[in-house]
Every structure is written in structure tokens, then in C-alpha cells.
Write a structure and sequence with these properties.
Number of domains: 2
Strand content: 25-35%
CATH superfamily of the largest domain: P-loop containing nucleotide triphosphate hydrolases
CATH class of the largest domain: Alpha Beta
Order of helices and strands: EHEEHEEHEHHHEHEHEEHEHEEHEH
Largest sheet: 6 strands, mixed
CATH architecture of the largest domain: 3-Layer(aba) Sandwich
Shape: elongated
Distance between the termini: 37 Å
Length: 341
């Protein structure tokens, strides 16, 4: 069974009171009674601002963005954990907030941090999850054994998970999400904190599940992970869609491809104009009072010309950073921020 998912004009606004200051005396020069009344004021934070996203049945789509971009909020809404302010979230044929029970049967969720019950063994965690989704006891036990072996946990099935390593807990979290064989799998930064060997194991398990025609929405900060696993990548920031396409197409859309980040004693508009006039330079963007981003057709071969142009403008270069065409460069182009912030 295959199922896709989508969001339509999804908006989520969080409302919270401002941080509490002193509990006694004055707050910012105001009497306590005045401070107490100010607690009723709310601060609005827009996590999603009309996000429309579609994940086709049977594909792996990566959702990228810096911290606070709205990735986890999007997953939270699609999995019924967070109620949207407005808009629709649909899994398969079901609106997840109008038909949550039917929608939940279609998907499995692997949270950013393992939330396993430390009072249970690995096998019990899986069989209890199967029972939660209505699997008969015999089928649940057979399924649990298969998953323990597939996730290299067969010898640890009867052990309490409190003694498991981080990688083992994450593998068990993925196995738990697959117990009811969901058509859609949500993975919220599943390899954060894992060693390289365990990360490769998790990648292969994700590919294996996708080869069975399953749909996967993966949030990640890892550029290599997105490039390796995802058929398409959606990049968001401030709750809005910036770009969505295949990894190859996204990288090809960066002007010139190469990014040369220059840091000066001071960066002036006149300096930017000198750099923009150089052959091979496609775009120049200010990175503040001391930094300039140069997008170009060439990489290292262009650096001597950049240094000479800066010297002629009386600017002293403090640092040069060169990077090849990448998804990171695409994000820097649109937001000026790194994906790992």
C-alpha cells in the first residue's frame, strides 16, 4: 500500500506569555501589581506561514532548514501532535485533524529524540506497539522478531533498553514505528548524534523500507544525508517554502555554483562593485559590514583576481572560504544562514 501526504496553506502561530522577571519588588521599574497585569500579554511566534507541501506516494522527500524554520512543527501537525492555526494537513485520503484515528493507522513516527519506555525490554516495546495498532498477539510477536533481527538487535531483545547505546535506541525507535507496517514514515532528524557506522546502517534501513513502495518524509540538517537518500528536497525558512526539487536541480540553480566567502577589515558598496565586475562572477551579496559572498563560475582560480580587486579598493582580506556547488550554498543564497544553525 502506498500513500502520499500534503499540506495546504498551513499556518501555525504559537502564543506564549513573555518571560517572567523578578517575583518580588519591581519589574523593569514597574510596581508588582503592574508587572502582574503584564503577564496576560501574549507574544505571537509564527512557525508556519502558509506552507504548502506535497510528498508523492512512494518517494523520500527531505525537509531542510535551520533550527526554527518550521520543520518539526510541520511534522507535528501531520502526525496530530500539534494543532494548526489554519490550513490543512492530509495523509493518504484523510485530513489528520478531522479523521485522526484513520490517519494514524497510515503512518509511523520516529521522533528527533528516542522516547522509549525504559521499564520495558526491546521486545516488549515492539509487541506493545503492535497491540496498540490492533495486531493479533501471534502476528505481533512474529513481526517483533523479524524487526529485531533486521535492525541487528536480536541478541538484545530481552534486555531493558536503559542500557542501550544511542544508536541502538534509535534503531529500536525506527523498528517500533514500522511494527504496524505503515504506508508513510515520518523521520525527524533520525541520525542526529549517531556515529558514522550507525548512520550508514540507518540509511540502508530507510532505503530498504522505501524500496517496498513506502513514503518517507525526512527532516534533517545533514546535507550528505539529504543528497544520498532523498528523491526531492524541500527547503524552508521562517515557515515558508524557499525551493523544492531534486538535489541535482537545486544545486544547479545556484548562480555559478561556486561560493567564495570573503571577510575583510571592512566591506563597502564600492568593493562589491569591483568584485561584481570580475570575469566569472555571477553575483555578489553582502554578508554584513565585513563579509561578502561571491557566487562564481570558478573556484580557486578566481581567488587571485578577488585578492587583487580588494587590494586595489584598499580592503584587507582576513579570511577566504571556498565551497563547491552544494545544497548548503543554495540555502545561503536565499537566506544568508547556514543549515546547521
Amino acid at each position: 500500500m502506498s500513500a502520499g501526504l500534503r499540506t495546504e496553506q498551513l499556518v501555525k502561530i504559537y502564543r506564549s506569555a513573555p518571560p517572567m522577571a523578578a517575583q518580588t519588588g519591581f519589574m523593569f521599574g514597574q510596581p508588582r501589581s503592574k508587572a502582574r497585569s503584564d503577564k496576560s500579554k501574549q507574544v505571537e511566534v509564527t512557525a508556519l506561514a502558509g506552507l504548502s507541501l506535497e510528498v508523492h506516494a512512494g518517494e523520500i522527500l527531505g525537509l531542510l532548514g535551520p533550527n526554527g524554520a518550521g520543520k518539526s512543527t510541520t511534522v507535528g501537525i501531520l502526525t496530530t501532535r500539534i494543532r494548526p492555526t489554519s490550513g490543512q494537513a492530509i495523509v493518504g485520503d484523510f485530513d489528520v485533524w478531522r479523521e485522526p484515528v484513520a490517519a494514524k493507522r497510515l503512518f509511523g513516527v520516529v521522533p528527533q529524540r528516542p522516547n522509549l519506555d525504559f521499564a520495558l525490554t526491546a521486545r516488549e516495546i515492539l509487541t506493545f506497539h503492535g497491540a496498540y495498532f490492533g495486531l493479533p498477539a501471534r502476528e505481533s510477536h512474529v513481526r517483533a522478531e523479524e524487526l529485531l533481527e533486521r535492525f541487528h538487535l536480536g541478541e538484545r531483545g530481552d534486555q531493558m533498553v536503559r542500557g542501550f547505546s544511542g544508536g541502538m535506541m534509535q534503531r529500536l525507535s525506527i523498528a517500533r514505528a514500522l511494527m504496524h507496517d505503515p504506508a508513510v514514515l515520518f523521520l525527524d532528524e533520525p541520525t542526529v548524534g549517531l556515529d558514522p557506522q550507525t548512520r550508514l546502517v540507518v540509511w540502508e534501513l530507510i532505503r530498504e523500507y522505501n524500496r517496498r513502495g513506502k513514503t518517507i518524509l525526512l527532516t534533517t540538517h545533514n546535507m550528505e544525508e539529504a543528497d544520498e537518500l532523498c528523491g526531492r528536497i524541500a527547503i524552508i525558512d521562517h515557515g515558508k517554502m524557499i525551493a523544492c526539487d531534486t538535489p541535482a536541480a537545486l544545486k544547479a540553480s545556484v548562480p555559478g555554483g561556486w561560493l567564495i566567502r570573503l571577510r575583510f577589515s571592512s566591506a563597502t558598496p564600492a568593493l562589491a562593485e569591483r568584485l561584481r565586475a570580475l570575469e566569472g562572477v555571477r553575483e555578489v551579496r553582502s554578508g554584513g559590514d565585513t563579509a561578502v559572498d561571491v557566487y562564481a563560475d570558478r573556484g580557486g582560480a578566481l581567488i587571485p583576481a578577488l585578492v587583487a580587486a580588494a587590494a586595489n579598493a584598499g580592503a584587507e582580506i582576513h579570511d577566504v572560504h571556498l565551497s563547491e556547488p552544494s545544497l548548503e550554498n543554495l540555502f545561503l543564497l536565499h537566506t544568508g544562514k547556514g543549515l546547521r544553525e
